[in-house]
Amino acid sequence: MLADHFPPLGLRLRTPRLELRLPSPEELAALADVAAQGVHAPETMPFVVPWTDAPPAEAARGVVQHHWAQLGAWTPEDWSLDLVVFHDGAPIGTQGLRGREAAVTREVSSGSWLGRRHQGHGLGTEMRAAVLHLAFDGLGMETAVTSAFEDNHASLAVSRKLGYRPDGLNRRVVRGAPVNDHRLRLTRADWERHRTVPVTVEGLAPCLPLMGLPAA
């Protein structure tokens, strides 16, 4: 099986409503269709790289290429696990977790997107909670970081709910204009205090060496 050669293909995270895992080619195509249908209101841009400004077909192709590129560039020192989020068996977005020298820093970062018609139902909180459980309980991390532009109220609300604290600002240029990018940090202690979503993890042990971590 392919997962014997690349164990993250066998990794599964499950919450009460969601499953997070790497997709089959057909599921990746369906995820691209979700992106083509819209991720945010046209007048806003929540991403540093404004990939959703592209025409729908180009944005969809970019989702496929980005997915392949991240897996192809994977090393134990610098890995990016872009899990597809499934709700009722269908892909609705992605939730990523990235580690750069994570075995040394004990820190990971996260990023995500959710199809616009799936927003507003608490799924963003649930999918972030899933990868935080993986980070802290599964990988033994000590901190997790993320960021969001000041007008991305939904993402900032998810971070507050999960226990993140402000960690400063970065100034970015998006669509030719300056924006404030709010950095946020979650410690293990704050994660423990705010965790409410039950999460199960399957298939993690064989993935650990690929993340630069000792085998269980």
Automatic annotation (TrEMBL):
EC assignment: 2.3.-.-
A molecular function annotated in GO for this UniProt entry is: acyltransferase activity
Q: Where is the N-acetyltransferase domain?
A: 18-185
PROSITE patterns found in the cross-reference section: GNAT (PS51186)
The identity of this protein, by name, is GNAT family N-acetyltransferase
* Keywords, ordered alphabetically: Acyltransferase, Transferase
Any Pfam family: Acetyltransf_3
**Annotated SUPFAM superfamilies:** Acyl-CoA N-acyltransferases (Nat) (SSF55729)
Please tell me which top-level EC class this enzyme sits in. Answer: transferase
Q: Which Gene3D superfamilies does the entry mention?
A: 3.40.630.30
